[in-house]
Amino acid sequence: MSKKPVSKNSVNAIEMLPGIYRKTLVYNNNMMLCYFSLDKNSYVPLHSHKEHQIGYVITGKLQFETEKGNFVVGAGDSYVFESNEKHGATILENSEVIDVFSPSRDDYK
Q1: What angle do CA 7, 8, 9 make, to 5 degrees?
Q2: How far is CA 8 from its chain centroid?
Q3: DSSP code for 41
Q4: pLDDT 10s digits, 36-82
Q5: Contact, 42 vs 60, CB < 8 A?
Q6: Which of 1, 8, 51, 52 could form a disulfide with 101 if both were Cys (CB 3.0 to 4.6 A apart)?
Q7: In terms of Cα–Cα distance, which of 103, 99, 104, 109 is closest to 44?
Q8: Measured between alpha carbons, how far is 81 from 79 in angstroms, rounded to an integer?
């Protein structure tokens, strides 16, 4: 990955699921920064991955589903999912989210 700054406007979005768009911004072997644009009423099914995930909601509102219970996050909120922790989301409002994965996700490169 380049050491130069990367603008989210210079990265093409990938539609991962209907209404779920990802832009992989920067990464190295240890961590990855991604920007997500999420359409209201879209859905991310319950899943898990080996990478730890922390996130920050820029705009909008989401409801996360986990095996430990559900919770709602909105603009200004942050969250964390441990390695292999099952989680999914229902998008309650058009939303923008930043997620960091550690280590980097090979499937997002």
Answers
A1: 85
A2: 14
A3: T
A4: 999 999 999 999 999 999 999 999 999 999 999 999 999 999 999 99
A5: no
A6: 51
A7: 99
A8: 7
Mention the CATH class of domain 13-108.
Answer: mainly beta
Torsion of CA 73, 77, 81, 86, to 10 degrees: 10
Residue 62 contacts residue 96 (beta carbons within 8 Å): no
pLDDT of 3 reads 73
Residue 19 Ramachandran class (φ > 0 left, ψ -120 to 50 alpha, else beta): left
The single-letter code of the amino acid at 8 is: K
Q: What are the structure tokens assigned to 62, written together?
A: 């989401």
* Residue found by looking up tokens 């709602």 in the block: 72
- Which tokens sit at 40? 């209201």
Q: Looking at this protein, which amino acid is placed at residue 51? A: E
In which region does residue 85 sit, left (phi positive, over 0), alpha (psi from -120 to 50) or beta (all else)?
A: beta
- Enumerate the domain spans of the chain: 13-108
Identity at 91, one-letter amino acid code: I
